[in-house]
Amino acid sequence: MIADGLRIRPADPAGPADAEALAAALLRNREHMKPWEPYRPERYYTAEGQAERLVDGGVRWFAVDGDRVVGSATLSGIVLGPFRSGSLGYWVDHEYTGRGVATALLEEACRAAREELGLHRIEACTVLDHVVSQRVLDKGGFVQIGTAPRYLHIAGEWRDHHLFQRLLHDDPPPGFPGSLPVNGDRA
């Protein structure tokens, strides 16, 4: 539990209720997230569109208030082998900012990335002027490692981004002499 009855839970890719709740949350926060998001077609804001996204291979967690989704963290682009890395994206409902929701989502994603997926690092990025998100990453133990010019097409233009990473451990990858296996590892 985070606070005020909020909790973090894994997304259910097969659950139609998750797709409906996520679509409602994204529609409710469309304007709030517009400055930080790429172009999204109308289908993105539907339960059908979110049902497709929930099975796309990323690992997701929701912050929920009852049955209402009020935030999400997603690990995508997961690479195993010697790299053992993933990319983190997250957002929080405009009515729930400043309550520790983003920090709790980041912590759960980092815990699962290390303990369940056996990742070594997680990367994240923000547009240069998204200071609030940069503070969340800093609080979550992420370190800025650079700036990428024209990195992503956000809000109608190619935008520069600060790049961040959090190292989760320095253990060798599974299969390396002396290493411990990770459940489900395909390295």
Characteristics of this structure?
globular, 187 residues, 7 strands, alpha+beta, Aminopeptidase
Could you please describe the fold and organization of this structure?
The chain has 187 residues and is of the alpha+beta class. It has a single domain (7-167), classed as Gcn5-related N-acetyltransferase (GNAT) (Aminopeptidase). Helices cover 26% and strands 33% of the residues. It is built from 5 helices and 7 strands; from the N terminus they run βαααβββαβαββ. Strands 1-2-3-4-5-7-6 form a 7-stranded mixed β-sheet, sandwiched between helices. Strand 6 and strand 7 (157-167) form a beta hairpin. Helix 1 crosses helix 3 (47-54). The longest helix has 15 residues, at 101-115. The protein is globular and about 50 Å long. The mean pLDDT is 92.
